[in-house]
C-alpha cells in the first residue's frame, strides 16, 4: 500500500497533464460527451440540431450568413468538424487565386465547406460534392439549396468516395479536375489520392487541398506525398477549427504530372 | 621559396575543399600569379607584338582554342621527344662522365642526389604526358601554352634565348657557364641531364618547374572557390598534391638546395605525423564518435549535455581514484580485518539477515560494516608495514576531493569565459541571426528542417520583438501574468518543500517506532517523494512558464532557476531533517556511552570477583554494545538517495521515453489520430533538466563523499551506465527539439550552477566536520574532540618541532589577517587589470571594424576607378572593337591591359607577389580582376588569408563581375 505522501507527489504530474492537454480535454468534452448527452436528450442527430439552428438564425440565399450561423453554433453550442472560419480563409484565398472550373469535394458533411467553396467559384464552374452518409447528405442538400446554389453549380453525389472516383469520368464526363478538396475520412486520403492519380483526372497544375492532416492527422498521406515526387506541396499550419490550442494543418498539393 | 608557405599550403588542404558558388567563368584563370610573373617578363619583350599575341590569347580564352592548342602542344612534344632520343645516344657518355664527377664531388650527399634525380626524370616524363593528363596538368598546360605560343611564331631557339635573358635573375650560379652554349644543344642536354640530376637543370626548366609548382600551390589554395563539381575538385587536389610532393624539393637555390629539400621532406613527414597523432588522440577520446553522431542528429545543445556528462565522468574518475586508492584500498589491505573489532563486525542482533538482498540493497548489514562507510575505519594512527597514516589520509582525501573539484570547476569556468568573452549581444542582431545561426554540425535532414524552422521563427520573433519594443500596449497584462506565474511557482515550491518536510518527519517517527513494522513504501518514502517531486515539478514549471511569454532563451533561464530552487530546497530540507536525526543519534550516543562504562565496569566486577588471576574475559566483538554512529547513518542516507535517484532516472527513461516511443510507433498503425505528429508524439531530450539532474547528483556526491567513501565509485558507475543508456535512448526514442538551441551561450550558466552547488554542498559537510564531534566508537577520528584534530596530531608527532611551531605562528590571527588582506588586494588588482584588458579588447575590436570599413571604401574606389578606365579604354579604340565585336578577342585585350598594369604595379613591390602583405596584394589585384573578368580572379585568393573581413573577398568579385558583365554587353 502506497503512502498518501507518494500519491501527493504525483499531483504536479496530474496538474501538468491537465494544463498541457486542456484543449484536448475541452475538445473531448464538446465533441463527445456533450454530443452524446444532447443526442439522448433531443433525439435528433448533431447535424440536424445544427441545421435547425442555422435555419432559424441565417438568412436564406445568403451564403455568408449561413456560414456565420454554422460558426456560431460550433463555437457556442457544440462541435462539428468542418473546415472552420480560419482555415476557410486559406481555402478562399487558394480558390480565388486559381479560380478552378471543375472542383471535387470529398466529404461534404453538412455542407459548410460546399457552401464555402461554391461561393468562391467563378462563373461557369462546377462543384461535385461527395458525401457517403445519407442523412448528412440530405442535410447538406438542404443547406446548399438554402444558400441559393442550384444543380448546375453544385452536384451532390451520395456515395462513398472510393466508388465515385473511378466513375467520375464516365458518369459526369469530366476531363480534368482543377481543384480537389479532401475533408472526409482521414484514412481514405491516401487511397483516394492514388485513385485520382490513376483515373487520370489530375492534370498539371491541379490543386489538391487536404484538411486535418496534422490533427486527427493523415500520416500515411503526408508520407506518401513527401516521397512520391508528383506534387509540389506545402502544409498550411493553423489550429483546429473552433479551438485555439490544437495545432492542425492543411496540405496544399499541386500536381506536377509524371516525369 | 619560403618554408612556412609550404606548410600552410599543406595545412590548408584539409579545409580547402568546400564548395562555394562563384561565377563560372573562372575556368581559365587558375595559375595566375606564376603566369603573371612570366607575363611580366615576356611583356618586356613582346609588348610591341600586341596584335599577334592578342589572337593567341584569344585562342586561349575560348574553349575550342584551348583544344587546338593542346593538339599543337602534343605535336610539339612529340617532336621534342624524338629529338631527345636522337641525341640521347650521342650524349650518353658525356652525361655519365658528368654524373661521375658530381658523385665524386658530393659523395656525402649521394643518396639525396639520387632521390632528387629520380623525381627530376619524372618531371620530364610528366611534362611529356601532360597533354593526355587532363585535369591535373592544367596549370602546366597553361604555362606551356605561353612558351609554345611564343615558340610557334619564332621557333624554339629564339624563345629559349629570350627566356634565358629575361629570367637571368632566377638562374643559379652553376647554370651560368651554359649560357654560351648553343641553344639547340642546350635543349637536348636538358632532356638528358634531367634524367639523372637535378642540380644540372637549365634555368628554363628550373623556371618552368618552379612556376608549375607555384601554379599548383595557387591551384590548391584557390580550389575552394572554383565552380567545379566536388569530384573534380578532389581529383585535382590529389593530383596537385602529388605533383608538389614530387618536385617541390628540387626548387631550392644553389648549394642549399639539398638541405632545403631535406628540410621540406622532414617537415612534411613531421606534419603528417602530427596530423596522424591528432587523429589518434581524437580516436582516443572516450565516446567521441557517439557524441558526434548525436550532435549531428540533435544539434549542439544536446551534444553539450553529453560533453558535460563526459567531463563529469572525468572528474568523478579522479575523485574515485583518490578515495579508492588512498582510503579504501589501504584500509582493506592493511587495516585490521573484518570481525576484529566491534566497529568492524555486524552486531549480533542483525547477524541473521545481514546478508539478505533487501538489507544489502538498503546498504545495511555487511555493506554497512565494510570499507564503504565511515564507521568501518579504525582510529589507529598508522596501519600496516607502510605505516600508512589512515586517519590523516582520510581527512586529507576528504578535503582534497573538494579542493580539486573547486579548482577544476573554476578553471573550466575561466576557460569558457575566455571563449565567450566579448561580442555584444545587442548590436547587429539581425545580421548575427542571418550569418551565424546555422549549426553546421547538423547532419540529419529532420534536424536540419527543425533548425530551419527555428531560425525562421527566431526571425519572426525578433521582428515581433522589435515591433513590440516600439509599442508596449499589453504590458500590464504581461506583468500580471508573470507575477501570477511566479506566484504559482512559489506555491509549488512551498508545497513540495512542505511535503518533503512532512515525509521526513514521518520517517523519523517510523524510525523511532522501528522500521520493521512498516512497509517498503513507507520506509522509502523520503527518497521516493524527493525523486518524484524532482521529476514532476519541472514539468509543471514548464507549463506555467507558458503564461509568461518570455523569449525562449530567457524562459530557459527562468526554468533553470526554478528547477534549481526546487532541487536546492529539496536537498536542504533533506539535510535539515538529517541534522535533526544527527542530533537524535548524538543523544542516543550519550546514553550508550554511559551504558558502555557501566557494562565494562560490570564486566570487570564480574571477572574481579570470580577469579582475579584469570585472563580477562573475551567477549565477541559482535556482542559489544556500540553507539549509533551518526556518520555512517549520514553516508547511508546519501547512498540511498543516489541509488533511488539513479533508479528513478533510468525508470523514467525507460517508461517515459522508450515505452512511449514504442507505443507511439506501433500503435500508430491502428489509432484514430496521428500519434507521431499529434498528441503523445515522441519525447524531446530535455537538456536543462538532465543537466540540472547531473549537477545535483554531483552535489550529493560532494556532500556525502566524506561519510561514504564508496560514493564516487557509485557515481562513476552511474555516469558510465548513463552515458550508454542515454546515448541509446536519445538516438532511439527521442526526436530533435523543435527549437534547436545553440549551446555555447548557456555553457557557463551550467558551470556557474555547478559552482554554486559545489559551494552549497560543501557547506553542510564542512559544518558537520567542524562543529559536531565524531562518534566515540567508530570511524577514523573516534576518540578525538573534533575531526580536524588529526592534523594537529600529525604535526605534533610526525614532524619536527619547528614545523609545528611555524604552523602555530602561521595560524596566529596576526598573520592570517594580513595575509587575507593581501589576498583581497590581489584579487582586486587582478580584477581591475582584467577589466582594463577587456576595455582594450573592445577598443581593438572597434579599430578593426573601422579598418574594415576603410578597406571596403578603398576597394570600392579602386573598383570604380578601374571600371571607369575600362570604359575609357573601350571607347577609345572603338572602331577596332567594332570590328572584333565577338567576345574573346575583346576580352583578351582587356586582360592584356591588366597584365601591363599588374607588371607596372608589382615591379616596385618585389618579385614574389604571394609574399606581400595581404592588404596591398588585395588592393593591387582589384583592378586586374576588374578588367580581366575571366582571369585573375584568384590572384588574391591565397594572399588574402590574413585579411580581416572575410566577406569582402566574397563580395568584391561578385561586384566586379557585375561590372565586367556590363562591359561585355
Write the layout of secondary structure elements.
The complex is a heterodimer of chains A (259) and B (969).
Chain A: H1 4-9, H2 11-20, H3 22-42, H4 46-57, H5 63-76, H6 84-98, E1 102-106, H7 112-120, E2 126-131, H8 134-147, E3 154-158, H9 161-171, E4 177-182, H10 189-199, E5 202-210, H11 213-217, H12 219-228, E6 231-239, E7 247-255
Parallel strand pairs in A: 1-2, 1-4, 2-3, 4-5
Antiparallel strand pairs in A: 5-7, 6-7
Chain B: H1 3-16, H2 32-46, H3 50-61, H4 63-105, H5 110-129, H6 138-154, H7 156-166, H8 183-193, H9 203-222, H10 230-247, H11 257-284, H12 288-298, H13 300-334, H14 357-361, H15 365-368, H16 390-420, H17 429-436, H18 445-470, H19 475-513, H20 520-523, H21 525-545, H22 552-610, H23 630-667, E1 683-684, H24 687-704, H25 711-733, E2 734-735, H26 744-771, H27 789-798, H28 801-810, H29 813-875, H30 878-883, H31 887-907, H32 918-931, H33 950-968
Parallel strand pairs in B: 1-2
Amino acid at each position: 500500500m502506497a503512502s498518501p505522501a507518494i500519491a501527493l507527489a504525483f499531483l504536479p504530474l496530474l496538474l501538468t497533464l491537465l494544463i498541457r492537454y486542456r484543449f484536448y480535454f475541452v475538445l473531448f468534452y464538446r465533441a463527445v460527451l456533450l454530443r452524446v448527452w444532447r443526442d439522448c436528450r433531443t433525439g435528433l442527430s448533431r447535424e440536424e440540431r445544427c441545421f435547425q439552428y442555422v435555419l432559424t438564425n441565417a438568412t436564406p440565399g445568403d451564403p455568408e450568413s449561413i456560414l456565420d450561423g454554422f460558426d456560431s453554433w460550433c463555437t457556442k453550442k457544440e462541435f462539428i468538424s468542418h473546415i472552420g472560419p480560419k482555415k476557410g480563409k486559406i481555402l478562399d484565398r487558394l480558390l480565388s487565386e486559381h479560380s478552378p472550373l471543375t472542383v471535387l469535394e470529398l466529404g461534404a458533411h453538412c455542407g459548410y465547406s460546399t457552401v464555402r467553396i461554391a461561393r468562391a467559384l467563378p462563373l461557369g464552374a462546377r462543384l461535385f460534392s461527395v458525401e457517403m452518409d445519407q442523412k448528412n447528405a440530405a442535410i447538406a442538400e438542404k443547406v446548399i439549396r438554402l444558400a441559393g446554389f442550384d444543380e448546375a453549380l453544385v452536384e451532390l453525389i451520395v456515395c462513398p468516395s472510393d466508388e465515385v472516383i473511378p466513375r467520375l469520368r464516365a458518369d459526369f464526363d469530366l476531363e480534368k479536375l482543377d481543384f480537389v478538396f479532401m475533408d472526409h475520412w482521414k484514412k481514405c486520403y491516401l487511397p483516394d489520392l492514388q485513385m485520382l492519380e490513376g483515373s487520370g483526372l489530375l492534370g498539371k497544375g491541379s490543386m489538391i487541398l487536404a484538411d486535418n492532416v496534422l490533427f486527427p492527422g493523415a500520416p500515411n498521406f503526408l508520407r506518401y506525398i513527401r516521397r512520391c515526387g508528383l506534387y509540389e506541396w506545402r502544409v498550411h499550419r493553423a489550429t483546429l477549427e473552433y479551438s485555439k490550442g490544437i495545432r492542425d494543418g492543411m496540405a496544399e498539393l499541386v500536381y506536377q504530372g509524371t516525369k | 621559396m619560403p618554408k612556412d608557405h609550404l606548410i600552410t599550403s599543406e595545412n590548408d588542404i584539409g579545409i580547402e575543399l568546400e564548395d562555394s558558388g562563384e561565377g563560372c567563368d573562372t575556368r581559365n584563370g587558375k595559375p595566375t600569379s606564376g603566369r603573371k610573373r612570366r607575363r611580366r617578363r615576356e611583356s618586356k619583350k613582346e609588348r610591341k607584338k600586341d596584335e599577334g599575341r592578342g589572337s593567341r590569347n584569344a585562342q586561349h580564352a575560348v574553349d575550342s582554342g584551348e583544344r587546338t592548342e593542346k593538339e599543337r602542344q602534343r605535336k610539339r612534344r612529340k617532336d621534342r621527344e624524338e629529338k631527345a632520343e636522337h641525341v640521347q645516344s650521342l650524349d650518353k657518355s658525356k652525361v655519365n662522365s658528368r654524373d661521375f664527377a658530381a658523385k665524386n664531388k658530393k659523395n656525402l650527399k649521394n643518396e639525396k642526389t639520387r632521390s632528387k634525380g629520380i623525381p627530376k626524370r619524372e618531371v620530364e616524363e610528366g611534362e611529356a604526358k601532360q597533354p593526355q593528363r587532363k585535369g591535373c596538368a592544367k596549370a602546366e598546360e597553361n604555362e606551356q601554352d605561353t612558351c609554345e605560343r611564343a615558340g610557334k611564331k619564332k621557333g624554339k631557339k629564339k624563345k629559349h634565348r629570350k627566356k634565358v635573358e629575361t629570367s637571368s635573375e632566377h638562374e643559379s650560379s652553376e647554370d651560368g657557364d651554359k649560357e654560351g652554349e648553343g641553344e639547340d644543344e642546350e635543349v637536348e642536354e636538358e632532356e638528358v641531364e634531367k634524367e639523372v640530376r637535378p642540380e644540372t637543370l637549365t634555368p628554363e626548366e628550373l623556371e618552368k618547374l618552379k612556376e608549375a609548382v607555384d601554379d599548383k600551390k595557387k591551384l590548391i589554395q584557390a580550389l575552394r572557390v572554383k565552380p567545379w563539381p566536388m569530384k573534380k575538385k578532389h581529383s585535382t587536389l590529389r593530383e596537385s598534391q602529388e605533383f608538389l610532393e614530387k618536385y617541390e624539393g628540387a626548387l631550392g637555390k644553389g648549394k642549399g638546395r639539398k638541405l632545403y629539400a631535406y628540410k621540406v621532406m622532414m617537415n612534411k613527414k613531421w606534419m603528417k605525423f602530427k596530423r596522424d597523432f591528432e587523429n589518434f588522440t581524437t580516436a582516443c577520446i572516450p565516446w567521441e564518435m557517439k557524441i558526434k553522431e548525436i550532435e549531428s542528429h540533435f544539434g549542439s545543445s544536446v551534444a553539450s549535455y553529453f560533453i558535460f556528462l563526459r567531463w563529469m565522468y572525468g572528474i568523478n574518475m579522479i575523485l574515485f581514484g583518490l578515495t579508492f586508492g588512498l582510503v579504501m584500498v589501504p584500509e582493506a589491505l592493511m587495516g585490521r580485518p573484518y570481525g576484529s573489532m566491534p566497529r568492524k563486525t555486524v552486531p549480533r542482533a542483525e547477524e541473521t539477515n545481514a546478508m539478505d538482498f533487501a538489507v544489502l540493497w538498503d546498504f545495511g548489514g555487511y555493506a554497512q560494516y565494510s570499507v564503504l562507510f565511515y564507521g568501518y575505519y579504525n582510529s589507529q594512527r598508522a596501519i600496516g608495514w607502510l605505516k600508512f597514516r589512515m586517519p590523516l589520509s582520510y581527512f586529507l582525501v576528504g578535503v582534497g576531493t573538494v579542493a580539486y573539484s573547486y579548482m577544476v570547476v573554476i578553471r573550466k569556468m575561466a576557460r569558457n569565459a575566455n571563449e565567450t568573452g566579448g561580442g555584444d549581444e545587442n548590436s547587429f542582431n539581425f545580421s548575427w541571426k542571418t550569418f551565424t545561426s546555422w549549426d553546421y554540425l547538423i547532419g540529419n535532414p529532420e534536424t536540419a528542417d527543425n533548425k530551419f524552422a527555428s531560425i525562421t521563427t527566431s526571425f519572426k520573433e525578433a521582428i515581433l520583438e522589435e515591433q513590440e519594443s516600439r509599442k508596449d500596449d499589453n504590458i500590464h497584462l504581461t506583468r500580471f501574468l508573470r507575477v501570477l506565474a511566479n506566484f504559482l511557482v512559489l506555491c509549488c515550491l512551498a508545497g513540495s518543500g512542505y511535503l518533503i518536510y512532512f515525509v521526513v518527519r514521518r520517517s523519523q517517527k517510523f524510525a523511532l517506532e522501528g522500521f520493521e513494522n512498516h512497509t517498503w513504501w513507507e520506509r522509502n518514502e523520503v527518497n521516493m517523494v524527493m525523486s518524484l517531486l524532482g521529476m514532476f515539478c519541472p514539468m509543471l514549471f514548464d507549463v506555467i512558464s507558458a503564461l509568461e511569454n518570455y523569449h525562449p532563451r530567457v524562459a530557459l533561464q527562468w526554468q533553470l532557476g526554478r528547477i534549481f530552487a526546487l532541487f536546492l530546497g529539496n536537498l536542504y530540507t533533506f539535510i535539515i531533517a538529517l541534522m535533526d536525526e544527527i542530533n537524535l543519534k548524538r543523544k542516543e550516543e550519550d546514553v550508550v556511552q554511559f551504558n558502555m562504562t557501566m557494562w565494562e565496569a560490570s564486566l570487570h566486577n564480574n571477572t574481579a570477583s570470580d577469579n582475579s588471576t584469570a585472563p580477562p574475559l573475551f567477549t565477541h566483538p559482535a556482542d559489544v554494545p556500540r553507539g549509533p554512529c551518526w556518520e555512517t547513518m549520514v553516508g547511508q542516507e546519501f547512498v540511498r538517495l543516489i541509488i533511488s535517484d539513479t533508479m528513478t532516472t533510468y525508470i523514467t527513461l525507460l517508461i517515459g521515453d522508450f515505452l512511449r516511443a514504442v507505443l507511439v510507433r506501433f500503435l500508430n498503425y491502428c489509432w484514430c489520430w496521428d500519434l507521431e505528429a499529434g498528441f503523445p508524439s515522441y519525447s524531446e531530450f530535455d537538456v536543462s533538466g538532465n543537466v540540472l539532474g547531473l549537477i545535483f547528483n554531483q552535489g550529493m556526491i560532494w556532500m556525502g563523499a566524506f561519510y561514504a567513501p564508496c560514493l564516487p565509485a557509485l557515481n562513476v558507475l552511474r555516469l558510465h551506465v548513463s552515458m550508454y543508456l542515454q546515448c541509446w535512448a536519445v538516438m532511439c526514442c527521442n526526436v530533435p527539439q523543435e527549437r534547436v538551441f545553440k549551446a555555447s551561450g548557456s555553457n557557463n550558466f551550467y558551470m556557474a550552477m555547478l559552482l554554486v552547488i559545489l559551494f552549497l554542498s560543501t557547506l553542510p559537510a564542512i559544518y558537520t566536520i567542524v562543529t559536531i564531534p565524531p562518534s566515540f566508537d567508530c570511524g577514523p577520528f573516534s576518540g578525538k574532540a573534533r575531526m580536524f584534530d588529526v592534523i594537529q596530531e600529525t604535526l605534533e608527532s610526525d614532524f619536527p618541532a619547528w614545523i609545528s611551531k611555524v604552523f602555530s605562528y602561521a595560524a596566529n590571527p596576526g598573520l592570517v589577517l594580513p595575509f587575507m588582506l593581501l589576498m583581497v588586494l590581489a584579487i582586486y588588482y587582478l580584477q581591475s587589470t582584467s577589466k582594463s584588458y577587456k576595455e582594450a579588447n573592445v577598443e581593438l575590436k572597434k579599430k578593426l571594424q573601422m579598418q574594415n570599413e576603410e578597406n571596403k571604401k578603398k576597394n570600392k574606389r579602386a573598383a570604380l576607378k578601374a571600371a571607369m578606365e575600362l570604359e575609357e579604354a573601350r571607347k577609345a579604340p572603338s572602331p577596332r572593337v567594332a570590328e572584333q565585336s565577338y567576345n574573346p578577342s575583346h576580352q583578351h585585350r582587356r586582360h592584356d591591359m591588366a597584365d601591363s598594369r599588374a607588371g607596372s604595379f608589382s615591379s616596385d613591390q618585389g618579385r614574389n607577389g604571394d609574399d606581400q602583405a595581404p592588404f596591398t596584394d588585395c588592393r593591387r589585384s582589384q583592378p586586374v580582376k576588374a578588367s580581366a573578368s575571366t582571369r585573375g580572379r584568384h590572384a588574391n585568393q591565397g594572399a588574402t588569408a590574413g585579411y580581416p573581413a572575410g566577406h569582402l573577398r566574397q563580395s568584391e568579385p561578385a561586384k566586379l563581375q557585375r561590372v565586367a558583365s556590363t562591359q561585355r554587353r
